[in-house]
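Bench notes, afternoon.
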Amino acid sequence: MIIKNKFTLLINKKSNSSPTYRSRRLLAIFLLNKTNWNNFTQLEQERTENTVLIVSVLYNMLKTKLVLKSNNEKELNKINKKGVDKVISDSKNALNGSLI
């Protein structure tokens, strides 16, 4: 019940609704049992942000289709080169400190 109430508060909070902010708050609530970002130590903030970034990169990798099905059964399926290249580029940007 407590988890459900914290989750509901997190989802309904409208002060900052970016996906990274919501992910960071969700991680903080469930793993560290903290709800105020200012109460985190510098190390906790860095680890939380890194974890959210890694999860974001992995999520984008998993939702990318590697093979695009052809409309015609006689044609071969195609490799999704653009999608794969974008995921690789986004992952490199994440490693360099840019958010996805």
